[in-house]
Design goal:
By secondary structure, this protein is of the alpha/beta class. Helices cover about 35% and strands about 10% of the residues. The model has no long low-confidence stretch (mean pLDDT about 95). Pathway: Amino-acid degradation; L-kynurenine degradation; L-alanine and anthranilate from L-kynurenine: step 1/1; Cofactor biosynthesis; NAD(+) biosynthesis; quinolinate from L-kynurenine: step 2/3.
């Protein structure tokens, strides 16, 4: 691979997604933003979309606008299903947070497997996922099997298979590991769980909009995910949940709200869940926030997940090659799978002074992310990150290491205290 800056510029000139960069705010400044897997940039169309809801639908339409708002959660859900998740219409709903959606689907799935007393999760998964699994298990008198995983390479399918038996009700896993970017085999894991009669609940937060997940094609049962990373829905944007159509009538989620009721405006005395995906709704949807989600989801659908994934792999390969050439001699090690086919759209590098390196990079116009214990996580977003951005960021990274300027930064412990 040609590692010159000129080669990176040439790849940008040939990039079929290059025009999308101009559709995001802040891309004309000098900041090299490599944290799109934590919070995506704001689409330039988002303020106008919010203004339409605020000034036209709310200010002028008032309560009459509910005639158009009432179906927003399913309408955007169908957009995500078709354009991002490889699901079918009527299988995705937008609303609540990722954590609340995970809780709803986990309890519903456990209830659908009576007589089974084990929940399985990954010991290196995102903390909230593990906490929710532990909380549900504690409330129901179930046992949690935390399957060990390599912090860099991810979960070994053979290790997971050994944890599956007829006692397992639900398996909760991330499609892309939050720390290393390791990519799980959704189809293989789903099939292994199905062989023992268990359901699988996927967290797609670091996958949606960056890698193809093909929920229908992979036979996935259940999934949740956030919309503020690669989907660019904004901070605190509502999440989405997916339930395979054949499972929807079998599952009864635990939070009974009027937006999941069969005839919500009858204000009836008893809860009777509506058929279909809407039974997983609870309360009044966040209309303003969902307007921003729709903008981001449409951009991803327009670009095409396959094209985004291909560019994400290429950006990652360039980053790994530059790290090998420039950073490894200074004690940096790759902390993600080396094979791009086994990696999502972010790359993680390990160094004993990762916290100080992260702060030194921020001060020099590069925005990465720090992850314990000693990781610098770099998340280029293929919708708006250029190859030359990766080159320049890695160039600044090597200069920080070469000069040792990061040594003057306080440790994380000093920052906390």
């Amino acid at each position: 691979m040609d590692l010159s800056r000129a080669a990176a510029e040439h790849r940008d000139a040939a990039d079929p997604l290059a025009a999308f960069r101009a559709r995001f705010a802040g891309t004309d400044d000098d900041v090299l933003y490599l944290d799109g897997n934590s919070l995506g940039r704001m689409p330039r169309e988002t303020p106008a979309a919010l203004a339409r809801v605020v000034e036209d639908e709310w200010a002028r339409g008032l309560v009459g606008s509910w005639s158009s708002w009432i179906g927003t959660a399913t309408r955007i859900g169908d957009l995500l299903a078709e354009g991002v998740l490889g699901a079918r219409p009527g299988e995705v709903l937008v609303g609540d947070s990722t954590s609340v959606d995970l809780y709803k689907l986990l309890v519903a799935a456990a209830d659908a497997r009576p007589g089974r007393d084990v929940l399985v999760c990954c010991a290196d998964d995102f903390p909230t996922d593990r906490y929710i699994v532990a909380g549900v298990a504690a409330a129901r008198g179930m046992t949690v099997r935390e399957v060990p995983a390599d912090v860099d390479e991810g979960l070994d399918p053979a290790v997971l298979a050994a944890a599956l038996d007829e006692r397992v009700a639900v398996v909760v896993l991330s499609a892309v590991a939050y720390r290393s970017g390791a990519l799980a085999d959704v189809a293989a894991v789903t099939a292994a769980a199905r062989d023992v009669g268990a359901l699988v609940l996927w967290d797609l937060s670091h996958a949606a909009g960056a890698v193809p997940v093909d929920l229908a094609g992979n036979g996935a049962d259940l999934a949740v995910g956030c919309t503020y990373k690669y989907l660019n829905g904004g901070p605190g944007a509502p999440a989405f949940l997916y339930v395979r159509a054949q499972l929807q009538e079998q599952l009864h989620q635990p939070i009974w709200g009027w937006f999941g009721q069969r005839d919500q405006f009858a204000m009836g005395p008893a809860y009777d869940p509506v058929p279909g995906i809407e039974r997983f709704g609870v309360g009044t949807p966040p209309v303003l926030a969902m307007a921003a989600v729709e903008v981001g989801a449409r951009l991803v659908a327009e670009a095409g997940v396959e094209r985004l994934a291909a560019k994400g792999r290429a950006l990652g390969e360039l980053m790994v090659a530059l790290a090998d050439a420039w950073l490894v001699p200074h004690g940096v090690a790759l902390a993600s799978p080396r094979d791009p086919a086994r990696r999502g759209s972010h790359v993680t590098l390990a160094h004993p002074r990762a916290w100080q390196l992260t702060q030194a990079l921020v001060d020099r116009g590069v925005v990465p992310d720090f992850r314990t214990p000693d990781r610098v996580r770099l998340g280029p977003a293929p919708l708006y990150t250029r190859f030359v951005d990766v080159w320049d960021a890695m160039d600044r990274f090597r200069k920080v290491l070469a000069t040792g300027v990061h040594e003057g930064y306080p440790t994380e412990r000093a920052r906390v205290t």
